[in-house]
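Form P-L/3: holo structure prediction, ligand zinc ion.
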Amino acid sequence: MNSCLFCKISAGELPADKLYEDENAIVIRDINPQSPHHFLAIPKKHYPAVHDIPQNEMPPLFAGLMNAVCQALNSSGLHNAGYRLVINSGDTAGQTVPHLHIHILGGRQLEWPPG
Ligand code: 5GP
Ligand code: ZN
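OUTPUT (holo model):
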């Protein structure tokens, strides 16, 4: 049995506030937002991190994932306002859900460098 949180949300087995969905990916609102707009773009296929994706699967996976990111950017207006895309990988980067996802952050002035 797959106990992965984002696999369950992707499969519709757990609820989420969805902005976008297609056969490859979903974009949901983060349950604990760190900015006024905080979305998560999640590929439906399970990989813990980018370095786990086989080379031949990289192009279609990222094409689908980045399309979902752009759909959410356009529908939320962040494409005009500015935004940040973040992938946390591993404990030291603060990854808490081991299913690859891209954070989409916006709606406030974002600091650099990040903490
Ligand atoms: P990570 O820490 O792995 O980079 O990001 C995981 C993100 O998932 C966190 O920002 C956290 O708030 C979010 N998250 C954790 N559980 C849930 C959930 O059940 N639903 C939603 N929508 N977001 C979640
Ligand atoms: Zn998963």
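COMMENT: The helical segments are 5-10, 58-76, 78-81.
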